[in-house]
Amino acid sequence: MSTLAQMLSDMGYEVSGYDDAKDYKFTQKGLEDRHIPIYYDSTHDIPKDTIVTFSKAFQEDHKEIQRVKKLGLTIKPYNEIVGDLTKEFETISVCGTHGKTTTTSMIKHLLEKTIGCNYFIGDGSGHIDRKNKILVIESDEFNRHFLAYHPKTAVITCIELEHTEIYKDLEDMIQTFETFANKAEHVIANGDDQNIRQITFKNEVVYYGENEENDYVIKEIKQDTKGSQFTLYQQKKCLGEFYIPLYGHHNIMNATAAIITALEQGLSLKEIKENLKTFQNAKRRFAIERVGSAIILDDYAHHPTEIKTTLEAVRQKFPDKKITVVFRPNTYSRTAAFKKEFAEALSKADKAFITPILCDRENPKDYPPIKSEDVIALVKGGELIDENSVEKLLPYKDSVVCFLGCATVARMIAKWKEILQKEAKEETKSS
């Protein structure tokens, strides 16, 4: 919602919002920069010509939704509003179960630095200038939202079962991605992904990956504590070496999708190589902070595959450090569907803590009985943690402490920092 609000504000619309929770969110800065007001009660005036949209975090019986209905205001689905925006530009839609935020951010970074572009990214970043012809948009498969979009180019990073409360099985997901992709004139797709390979594309498709049958082939991968380097070939023609200040094999795949997209928009290899070197990851994607000697990592990883790839990236960045994970599960449906997979992924860490499940759009009664303890039981040495027991992390302060989850973990990070700072002061006094 934050991203859409920013873009509509940039287009000259008067925008305001409502939220129940007053705690600070990482998507909030763009709203503050544009002076977009956020209300926390139902006493503010709403003009009669206002168009209202709301997220799935709010149920139909929510007091604010009931209020706007009584006022007779127009309510329009979020994805339809976004879909209308995609019609106005040459839209590059980036979709996929994983990697779409980082890939969208990379494409935006490359184009913004050169030919200019509008962008819509799930980390709360959004901007529109009507002078820009191109719109780069992260296209979410949740609730089949992206089917309302109108892309000229579709980029597909990967397909894996997710959002089990929406999709009945993997085949349902693949078919939905196929429907979306065939709305585009042109597709750039991860050819190493066997689920993507099942799609029958109606229009032109370009495949990338490590397998030789792809149109663009990644070779000669080198990874160290500073980042990743690889060589890219197009139909056996060497395009040269590319460096990214990112970690993990998945980010090499994301970067390749961004490179191909930029090439098709007319950027030179020199421009792409130079600008990739300065790329800074999206918000809450492998965000590292140091408090004294302690290392804190904040990441959006919320699916077993994402947790696994994030931990692999941490091993690349910090090969001599142990890893402690604090994972906040989100949605009962996802936790129930991937209980074993979550346990396997979290076991890649040296120590795993799991919080109670957080979900604001599901009723636990609607799903098989599931709780965090069911995952913990499958993780050797796994422990329950919450915002009132963050001190459990103290024996692991010398490790890389990773806070993972799509639900906010900001308050837990803040408490962990407070504990570290307090301990540092006490150590200073005693010395």
How would you describe this protein?
The chain is an alpha/beta fold and 431 residues long. It folds into three domains: 2-76, Rossmann fold (3-Layer(aba) Sandwich); 80-276, Mur-like, catalytic domain (UDP-N-acetylmuramoyl-L-alanine:D-glutamate ligase), CATH 3.40.1190.10; 287-430, Mur ligase, C-terminal domain (Protein-Tyrosine Phosphatase, Chain A, Alpha-Beta Complex), CATH 3.90.190.20. 31% of the residues lie in helices and 22% in strands. It has 13 helices and 20 strands. It has a ten-stranded mixed β-sheet with strand order 7-6-8-5-9-10-11-12-13-14, with helices on both faces. α5 (100-112) crosses α7 (249-264) and α9 (304-317) runs parallel beside α11. The longest helix is centred in the C-terminal third of the chain and has 21 residues, at 410-430. The chain is globular, with a radius of gyration of 22 Å. It starts with a helix and ends with a helix. The mean pLDDT is 93.
Instruction: Please compute the radius of gyration using only Cα atoms.
Output: 22 Å
Helix amount: 25-40%
What proportion strand?
15-25%
Which topology of the largest domain does CATH recognise? UDP-N-acetylmuramoyl-L-alanine:D-glutamate ligase
Structural class: alpha/beta
- How many E-type strands? 20
In short:
This protein is an alpha/beta fold.
